[in-house]
Amino acid sequence: MDTQKPNPVVLASGRNRDDAPRSGVIHVNVRHARRFTVVGNHLAQHAEMSLVAIGLALHIQSLPAGARIGIKDLAARFPESEHRIARALRELEVYGYLERTLVRLPGGQVITRTVSYNRPGRLESDENPGPAPAPAPAADPPPATVPAPDTPAPPAPAPAAPVAAPPVAPQATHTPQAAPAPPSATAQPLPQPENPDNPWRRDAAVSVLTDLRCEDPRLLLGRQDIERLAPAVEAWLERGARPDGITAVLTANLSPRPRNPAGLLAYRLTVQLPPALAATPRPEAHVPPDPFQNCTDETSGLAFRALEPGLCGECLADAADAAVA
Fold first, then answer.
1. If you average pLDDT over each of 9-23, 78-92, 175-189, which comes out highest?
2. Residue 176, SS3?
3. Which residues contact 301 (CB under 8 A, 6 or more apart)?
4. How far is residue 233's CA from residue 240's CA, in Å, rounded to a whole number?
5. Taken in order 15, 19, 22, 28, is the CA torsion positive or negative?
6. Are 267 and 191 in the same domain?
7. 96 pairs with which residues across the strands?
8. pLDDT tens, 165-181?
9. Cross-strand partners of 114
């Protein structure tokens, strides 16, 4: 009878570690020495962007400078459709990871210049301030001079008369002052409508704020921001502003990458609130006609409309002809 030999069990690296979690992912990390890209967790674990946008941002950051990342180029590289890739690029623009601007070349050709940011809102100098300057080496002390033996020391020179130093003007101490803080919408409360119980105006205000992302994808607002800013838009509508006019004011002259779109809109809705229009008298909807009158000429007896009794039109014409004759 043959002796059965047990087969050795090969365990994957990292599975039987004492510090391994009981459930969930277990990381087996190997340090990269070449061909790698550093990505922050603010992108890899973004709470609002889609998975397609996060993966596309990672791919763009791994490309060398000058690589083509147009919609058709990316659609030819990945199985996603052009529509999904275009939507992912717009997401990256909204959250500041990508910036696309139209640039006109000297020859007249218009191209799209794309800039990728691996950490929106921060500069490279903020993260890598550079090595500190090395301290200057200390100078070697001069060698001590030892007089030769049997040599008389030279007489010491007479001390020179002290020369008064010229007076030094006191330097004015300049204390650096902090730069003035930018205007904030929190300094003033948001405007409120005088008559808030108007469902039509409320729906119009919510529609204005919701449709801002159609005018500019950077003005994508959440539900809480829309509910907070809707009364301010109602105050504008109550003062006679039209929805398209409010949209034009809120989307004019935006910065390339607004950090707080909701705060910017709140500031504009507060500071640029238009004045209330003066009440203008309106003409009456119906003007009653003149009352009926009977012609004072007994031979005519016609009825006509006039403020006061008198001759009818035909009798007035006959009287005028008789006066001329």
1. 78-92
2. coil
3. 294, 295
4. 11
5. negative
6. yes
7. none
8. 555 555 544 444 444 44
9. 100
Q: Which residue has the higher pLDDT, 281 or 273?
A: 273
What does the pLDDT look like over 223-280, one tens digit per residue?
A: 999 999 999 999 999 888 999 999 999 998 888 888 888 888 999 999 989 888 776 6
Q: What's the full length of the chain, in residues? A: 325
Amino acid letter at 90?
Answer: R
Residue-level pLDDT at 233: 93
CA-based end-to-end distance of the chain: 157
The verdict on residue 124 lying in a domain is: no
CB atoms within 10 A of CB 217: 14
Residue 311 pLDDT level (bands cut at 50, 70, 90): confident
Q: Confirm whether 252 is domain-assigned.
A: yes
**Which range (7-16, 42-51, 224-233) has the least confidence?**
7-16
Backbone angles phi and psi of 185, in degrees to 5? -75, -15
Nearest to 65 by CA among 118, 119, 122, 126: 118
Whether residue 147 lies inside any domain: the answer is: no
Containing 84, the helix (H) or strand (E) segment is helix 82-94
Q: Which domain holds residue 234?
A: 185-271
Question: What phi and psi values does residue 143 have, to the nearest 5 degrees?
Answer: -65, 140
Residue from 320, 317, 319, 311 nearest 303 by CA: 311
Domain assignment of residue 18, yes or no: no
> What radius of gyration do the chain's Cα atoms show?
43
**Which DSSP string corresponds to 195-229?**
----HHHHHHHHHHHHTHHHH-TT----HHHHHHH
pTM: 0.36
Tokens of 85: 């890739």
- The whole-number pLDDT of residue 100 equals 84
* 3-class DSSP assignment, residue 72: helix
What percent of the chain is helix, strand and coil (3-state, nearest 5)?
35, 5, 60
What is the pLDDT, as a whole number, of residue 172? 47
Taken in order 255, 40, 73, 217, is the CA torsion positive or negative?
negative
Q: What is the rounded distance in angstroms from the CA atom of residue 194 to the CA atom of residue 49?
A: 39
